[in-house]
Amino acid sequence: MAKILITGGAGNIGSFIADQCLEMGHSVVVVDNFYNGKFNNVKQHLKNENYSLETIDIGSHEMVKYVFDKHKPEYVSHQASLMIMDSDKFPEKAIDTNIKGTFNIINACAKSGVKKLTYGSSASVYGNPRFVPVTEDHPFDNRTLYGATKIAKEALMHSWAYSHNVPFVGFRYFNIYSERQGLGAFYTQVFQKWIHAIYEGREIIMYGDGSQTLDLVHSSDAARANVLAMFNDEVKNEHFNVGTGIETSLKEILSLIENLLGKKAKVKYVESDPHLVKRRCASVKKISDALGFKPQVTVNDGTKKYIEYLLEGKI
Ligand SMILES: NC(=O)c1ccc[n+]([C@@H]2O[C@H](COP(=O)([O-])OP(=O)(O)OC[C@H]3O[C@@H](n4cnc5c(N)ncnc54)[C@H](O)[C@@H]3O)[C@@H](O)[C@H]2O)c1
User: Fold this and answer.
1) In this predicted model, what pLDDT tens digit does every residue of 60-106 receive, in sequence order?
2) Is the CB–ligand 1 distance for residue 16 below 6 Å?
3) 259: Cβ–Cβ under 8 A, 6 or more apart, which residues?
4) Which residue from 6, 13, 15 has its CB within 8 A of the most atoms of ligand 1, so it is best to mutate?
5) 175-177 and 248-249: which strand pairing?
6) What is d(CA 298, CA 192) in angstroms, rounded to the nearest whole number?
7) Do 309 and 179 touch, CB atoms closer than 8 A?
8) What does the pLDDT look like over 229-280, one tens digit per residue?
9) Domains by residue range for the chain, with CATH
10) % of the chain at pLDDT higher than 90
11) 3-state class of 67 per DSSP?
12) Residue 125: closest CA among 137, 116, 112
């Protein structure tokens, strides 16, 4: 049984990593400041003796050191981050959490001899892709502060892996969604915000003709990629795309939601925003070859589950 510390463990991806590690018989320490985390994502474990919750901010070097000294984790999965819209709104906080916070975590991993660190980067490092499916060697073409912090994170990971012997695996997540996601995140604009708006009879906005695509991955699959990498000694100091390789257009997402909810959306069509990424589609060859990773949740099943939770009043 190993001890695994998960930053952002009350959030969307981190809470699934916690569940999967507990199911495997490991013990879990969740670190989260509940900026976008949900009590619903942690409450079922609070009486489990293999589960600890530390409500701290990873931007504080002292608090991170305190938690590592107290729990002495063997593995770490670092998912805590400010999301894209919040990073635009609060740039200083984005630097404190995404860059300084990441440095605090890697540094603590180095000092305590952590065996493997997995963490969340983003497909936003690629910007508007020059080709699809996007392979991991696609050039960085980021235009956002959030993406800049992800590129800085990747550079920090590489430098510390070699200079301080912290083996890492980083994941460039594509469009991650689940019933556990906080409503503040940018990615929720299309998927969750549309579901909630259509359900409540509110208008939704469609930019352009709806041909823009997403590569939608359920958070439980993104979590599985982390767990696979954590315990694979052969794979280290690499970045992988986490996607399905399947593009779903906004038009398709809209009709899927309408069918599952049994309601017609009120759609306001506006001119396409030139800053929006037009296509997201991951090449999944590298992650499939190295980790044997294959997504298990289809967009249809994932959306159905989200809507079931919504109708049961769980969201
Ligand atoms: N959701 C997506 O589509 C997506 C896409 C690409 C990359 N990512 C990356 O994946 C990772 C996990 O994303 P998610 O979807 O689970 O997001 P999330 O917002 O659900 O989870 C992040 C968690 O980190 C916590 N947190 C934020 N700032 C913190 C701080 N200073 N100290 C401690 N905890 C803090 C939040 O409260 C939240 O629970 C992040 O690094 C994110 O940038 C997500």
Assistant:
1) 999 999 999 999 999 999 999 999 888 989 999 999 999 999 999 99
2) no
3) none
4) 13
5) unpaired
6) 16
7) yes
8) 999 999 999 999 999 999 999 999 999 999 999 999 999 999 987 778 899 9
9) 3-177+218-243 (3.40.50.720)
10) 89
11) helix
12) 137
